[in-house]
């Protein structure tokens, strides 16, 4: 016999296992909060901007061809900024306890489409160190590009600064807790239906009809201890009368 599940059965199962669903959701929220606030190291972000322009000449005008040449150089510059030739000097000047390969993972270099402005973004557990690395990377690159490329077309547009109350960019506790709540809710609902599916005990007359494929002819009501005691007293009283 094919078993069908109605919407009423779904709501009945959810209501029956509501406490389990709530408990799992709360546990997931608690674990996410503890991990986000006390386990994961907060990461701060700082950025500096450099401008790639044409080498200074006596005529302060730029043609479209000059700008196109500058844009083509940006991809090369992006690679040079994160190269060991630059980062090794940054490490030495800031006396950082790291390697160029490890420092590369903290630095992101990008520019907007058709823009000559390059953003150097640094993420670090120490907000002041993130600012120092961003500014020092821009300064070292500006100085070294003159030797590496034989050009002087880089200038610092906006240096990185440390705010009064820097906030970490990650983790995001509220987002993590929201995701954990959804996951906990899904686990709770899934476990509720799993337990209901594995529960093969007979509880209602409908279960008997479905299991035996026979109609129910009668039901035996539950008898409480008080009703049973009253029945015994009534039987004893009848015997005395006889």
Automatic annotation (TrEMBL):
InterPro entries recorded: Bact_polysacc_biosynth/exp, GNVR, LPS_length_determ_N
Pfam families xrefs: GNVR, Wzz
Localization annotation: Cell membrane
Sequence ranges assigned to domain Polysaccharide chain length determinant N-terminal in this UniProt record: 3-94
Name by which UniProt lists this protein: Capsular biosynthesis protein
Family of the protein in this entry: Belongs to the CpsC/CapA family.
Membrane topology designation: Multi-pass membrane protein
Transmembrane intervals: 20-40, 174-195
Every Tyrosine-protein kinase G-rich domain range: 142-194
Keywords associated with the record: Cell membrane, Membrane, Transmembrane, Transmembrane helix
């Amino acid at each position: 016999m094919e078993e069908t599940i109605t919407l009423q059965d779904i709501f009945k199962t959810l209501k029956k296992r509501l406490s389990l669903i709530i408990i799992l959701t709360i546990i997931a929220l608690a674990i996410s909060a503890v991990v986000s606030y006390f386990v994961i190291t907060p990461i701060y972000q700082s950025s500096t901007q450099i401008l790639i322009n044409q080498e200074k000449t006596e005529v302060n005008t730029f043609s479209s061809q000059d700008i196109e040449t500058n844009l083509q150089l940006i991809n090369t510059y992006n690679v040079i900024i994160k190269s060991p030739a630059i980062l090794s000097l940054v490490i030495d000047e800031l006396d950082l306890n790291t390697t160029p390969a490890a420092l590369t993972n903290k630095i992101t270099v990008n520019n907007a489409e058709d823009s000559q402005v390059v953003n150097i973004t640094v993420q670090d557990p120490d907000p002041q160190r993130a600012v120092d690395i961003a500014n020092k990377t821009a300064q070292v690159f500006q100085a070294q590009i003159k030797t590496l490329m034989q050009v002087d077309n880089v200038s610092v547009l906006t240096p990185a600064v440390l705010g009064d109350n820097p906030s970490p960019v990650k983790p995001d506790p509220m987002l993590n807790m929201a995701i954990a709540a959804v996951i906990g809710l899904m686990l709770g609902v899934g476990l509720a239906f799993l337990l209901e599916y594995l529960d093969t005990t007979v509880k209602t007359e409908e279960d008997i009809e479905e299991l035996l494929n026979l109609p129910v002819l009668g039901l035996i009501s539950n008898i409480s201890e008080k009703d049973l005691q009253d029945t015994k007293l009534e039987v004893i009283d009848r015997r005395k009368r006889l």
